[in-house]
């Protein structure tokens, strides 16, 4: 059965491995070039927080953005592709071409046929996702010493840690289940693409509730110092200590800003702070990175197991 | 009930035994109350019009679907060649044989390779590039290489030219002659089966109509031709048709007393057509009456 799995799915396996290899070469090349640039141009002590390092930091940022624009779409598109080309055809193509009547009438029982395929391909998908995560995690620090965005930026968050592996596995299970329901490859592929997009949006909305948000009271500014934090919500705190969403009757003039200027809003905020108001921010600090990674991975793994069970049930009956 | 009227059940041990089988797709029954057995070593023809439940019965026999009622028992291992001979298009013929070896506990790879070589099918050719006849031969070879006790073939001759039909049939019969192999094959063309089959199963509208040894069935029936109005008393009429003043009937058992009838032994096709035209008639082992 291992040979059969390899023979039937080698196109997907080779293309995915090839893609990861090309991406690895790209990231490696970019990292080597950036390291060289730093070695040749950076003043002593850079990169770092010193003022003299600004130029180097900007140049590195430009290099980072150039590569990031290439793979910024990967957190959404790669799971969709995995689901559409690894998951959807697994059962749908057998039904579509009638070959399930060949495959499932040999002496290998259907449950074993399914178990081998799901575990081997699921394992390969998880390995591929982890490899992607490792490559991205090794590449990013070259550009971003001390400037981290792995937690606050949902796109980056989904590319590091265990998130890619969990998303790939989920998409694979979704595709397999869709294939067992529709028994046609094309509708199953379409459902995967839509399903992955909807799931990602839903989990993003849900992620605010993975933990009780931390609370910070700010005075003099409405911006949280930690730029990698995830903001959940914010409110004003009256001098009396009461929290209100919109302060009213404060006596501070409030005018609408025009264009890109925020002068009026800033003046209003400064006036409020002057009257003893404070700004309460509810947020998740970046220290919760792994807690969020494992929570999301747990949800996706459970969903994958449920979808896998659905596919097995549909197939065995 | 006179002696000799009963179609006897199998004297040999059954290779396939179906008891009270009922298969339902959503709300409609594809197969109902179906009980039959096919004796070891026989070549059984499963005939019936399209939609009669032939494929459903075969799928139940090889475990592709779970019946709602009743059960199917196969003595030993069954191999199946499904309708349209599904194979993996992108595999080469040699890779199809590897597929068979990897997915079967019993596997005679040497015999399979010899057979394909004997048929002149190149092992390096992609399955998608084979002709219809070659494709059928590869599918049958795969099934035979599992050394099955029961070979189930769903419309093995459909879409084949007469030469290929003959070749495929010869391949199967050669295997039957060599060892104890039971074959159940379906067709809606009765003439394909006349020379090769010795057991007949007729399905119609999801119900079993006939099940028995072909020779005994033919011996137990008569085709009567006579004038309109001749008495058919004392016989069990399967079906009748009128052309002008003449009546032709298929009857089961002894000829009627009325001397105006001319009687002869039916052909297989006449027998099958007679039953298919009268869905309410049945000739089953252990069933006394013909008709309702």
Automatic annotation (TrEMBL), chain A:
It comes from the Bacteria. This is ABC transporter permease. It comes from Nonomuraea phyllanthi.
UniProtKB/TrEMBL annotation, chain B:
It comes from Nonomuraea phyllanthi. SMART domains: AAA. Coiled coil: none annotated. The keyword NAD does not apply. This is ATP-binding cassette domain-containing protein. Pfam families: ABC_tran. Keywords: ATP-binding, Nucleotide-binding. CDD domains: ABC_DR_subfamily_A. GO terms for molecular function: ATP binding; ATP hydrolysis activity. It comes from the Bacteria.
């Amino acid at each position: 059965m291992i040979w059969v799995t390899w023979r039937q799915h080698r196109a997907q396996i080779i293309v995915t491995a090839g893609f990861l290899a090309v991406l690895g070469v790209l990231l490696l090349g970019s990292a080597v070039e950036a390291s060289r640039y730093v070695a040749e141009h950076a003043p002593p002590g850079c990169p770092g927080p010193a003022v003299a390092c600004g130029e180097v930091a900007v140049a590195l940022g430009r290099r980072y953005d150039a590569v990031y624009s290439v793979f910024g779409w990967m957190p959404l598109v790669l799971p969709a592709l995995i689901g559409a080309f690894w998951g959807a055809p697994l059962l749908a193509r057998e039904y579509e071409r009638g070959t399930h009547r060949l495959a499932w009438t040999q002496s290998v029982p259907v449950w074993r046929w399914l178990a081998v395929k799901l575990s081997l391909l699921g394992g390969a998908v998880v390995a591929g996702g982890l490899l992607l995560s490792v490559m991205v995690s090794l590449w990013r620090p070259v550009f971003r010493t001390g400037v981290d965005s792995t937690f606050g930026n949902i796109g980056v968050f989904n590319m590091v840690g265990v998130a890619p592996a969990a998303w790939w596995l989920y998409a694979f299970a979704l595709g397999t289940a869709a294939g067992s329901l529709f028994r046609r490859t094309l509708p199953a592929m379409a459902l995967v693409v839509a399903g992955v997009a909807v799931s990602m949006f839903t989990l993003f909305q849900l992620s605010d509730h993975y933990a009780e948000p931390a609370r910070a009271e700010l005075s003099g500014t409405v911006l949280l110092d930690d730029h990698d934090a995830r903001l959940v919500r914010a409110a004003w705190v009256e001098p009396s200590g009461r929290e209100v969403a919109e302060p009213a009757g404060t006596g501070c003039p409030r005018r609408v800003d025009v264009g890109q200027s925020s002068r009026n809003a800033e003046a209003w905020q400064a006036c409020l702070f002057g009257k003893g108001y404070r700004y309460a921010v509810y947020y998740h600090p970046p220290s919760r990175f792994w807690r969020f990674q494992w929570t999301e991975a747990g949800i996706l793994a459970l969903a994958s197991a449920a979808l896998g069970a659905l596919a097995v049930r549909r197939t065995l009956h | 009930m006179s002696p000799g009227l009963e179609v006897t059940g199998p004297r040999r041990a059954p290779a396939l035994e179906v008891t009270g089988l009922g298969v339902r797709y959503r709300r409609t029954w594809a197969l109902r109350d179906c009980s039959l057995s096919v004796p070891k070593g026989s070549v059984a023809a499963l005939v019936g019009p399209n939609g009669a439940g032939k494929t459903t019965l075969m799928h139940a026999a090889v475990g592709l679907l779970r019946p709602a009622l009743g059960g199917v028992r196969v003595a030993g291992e069954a191999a199946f060649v499904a309708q349209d001979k599904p194979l993996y298009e992108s595999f080469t013929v040699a890779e199809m044989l590897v597929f068979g070896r990897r997915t079967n506990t019993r596997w005679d790879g040497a015999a399979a390779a010899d057979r394909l070589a004997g048929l002149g099918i190149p092992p390096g050719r992609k399955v998608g590039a084979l002709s219809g006849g070659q494709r059928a031969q590869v599918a049958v070879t795969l099934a035979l290489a599992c050394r099955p006790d029961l070979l189930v073939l769903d419309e093995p001759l459909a879409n084949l030219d007469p030469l290929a039909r003959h070749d495929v049939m010869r391949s199967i019969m050669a295997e039957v002659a060599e060892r104890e192999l039971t074959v159940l094959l379906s067709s809606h063309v009765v003439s394909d089966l006349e020379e090769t089959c010795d057991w007949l199963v007729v399905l119609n509208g999801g119900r079993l109509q006939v099940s028995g040894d072909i020779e005994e069935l033919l011996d137990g029936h008569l085709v009567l031709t006579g004038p309109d109005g001749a008495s058919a008393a004392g016989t069990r009429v399967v079906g009748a048709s009128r052309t002008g003043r003449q009546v032709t009937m298929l009857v089961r058992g002894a000829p009627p007393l009325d001397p105006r009838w001319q009687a002869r032994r039916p052909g297989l096709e006449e027998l099958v057509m007679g039953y298919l035209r009268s869905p309410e008639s049945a000739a089953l082992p252990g069933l006394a009456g013909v008709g309702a």
